[in-house]
Write a structure and sequence with these properties.
Length: about 450
Amino acid sequence: MKQLLAFIGFLFFIQGNGFTQKLYLLKPDRVFDGTAIHEGWSVLVEGEKIIAVGEPKNVEEAAQKLQTSGKPAPQIIDLKGCTLLPGFIEGHSHLFLHPYNETTWDDQVLKEARSLRTVRATLHAKQTLMAGFTTVRDLGTEGAEFDDVGLKQAINQGIIPGPRMVIATKALIATGSYAPKGFSPDIEVPQGAEEADGHDRLIQAVRRQIGKGADVVKIYADYRWGLMGDARPTFLVDEIKLIVETARSSGRPTIAHAGSTEGMRRAILGGCETLEHGDAGTPEIFSLMHDKGVALCPTLAAGDAVSQYRGWKKGVEPEPERIKNKRVTFKQALDAGVTICFGGDVGVFSHGDNAREMEMMVDYGMKPLDVLRSATSVNANVFHLSQLGNVKTNFWADLVAVEGRPEERISDVRKIKFVMKNGEIFRNEPILSPKSSK
Ligand SMILES: [Zn+2]
């Protein structure tokens, strides 16, 4: 009976708590606020927002002030040995794809039921969030129609755990340019995105995608199409301008898959805000990107993964041409001062392994601190997410804690101990090894 009463009391406690906002006082060893490291800082979260951040004395004073106004004492989250950072923002994901060494892209598009792809996507969403990526810019369902709209709703309604999603829905391609290959021209093959060309059809397609839920319009400015093996431009500059203008008039940005030099040039001149991949960029192209304020999302990990799927034994065999070139062009982009987004094209490789791109950015020449900025405040800024990517007062409480010092050793971003999204805790693990605390 006593136990039953205690249980009923507990139920009332839970219910009662629903009326007051939850308060958490986070005490890591240090805070990376999106720009710099601050030793010893604490963070106070109320409900969905960060309400205080800074020296422990000031943050605790803020908590005390709340208590004198009748609010409960905050729950203390001890994150000793950890660095607290803004939730990471993945800049280029495909939650509806899984690694190509499991199933080729062609077979995923042609042979997998959309229901199967959706079930996988729900697991991918969870893996992504648990790895500390609290937001994704998901750049196309790759043949799975508008299914990212429902996935995003399921996450936002709390039905499944997952990151905040910025979605592109079907994405846009010039007719015939992005589809499974090797078929007779007499067969109609489903495309990996929506085909549209010319004035009226492009305007309609952009508006349809936005109407169904697209936050961003993605175009393929080039692709390997027809019988030629290399990437060639698709849309004309005027077509891209039309897409950009149509999207912009509704407040949405346009971004472009662009791997070839000419595809990149057209996407920049057409007004796209970010270029994805950019493998054949040149110093001239990168300087044009810099001057026009176009960001590069280099997707280093996707190239690394695909090269290995094709047989390259990394660490044993010399780097293939594609990898060598990518190192050169990435360096050129850095030298030109191009804004670098963090985005790995995850889906080509495993969801939850998003950190692979961060490690590669360091390997290819970026400083760890710049990579952390890229994956937080820079992505937030480039993607127009005005209250994310920073640990600042009044920003959404999307926070992760990792054991160690990722600004010195980037792979520490994998040592996730704590994940909070929108003030809700999704992961909170005790720190077992005291070695990293000083
Ligand atoms: Zn992609």
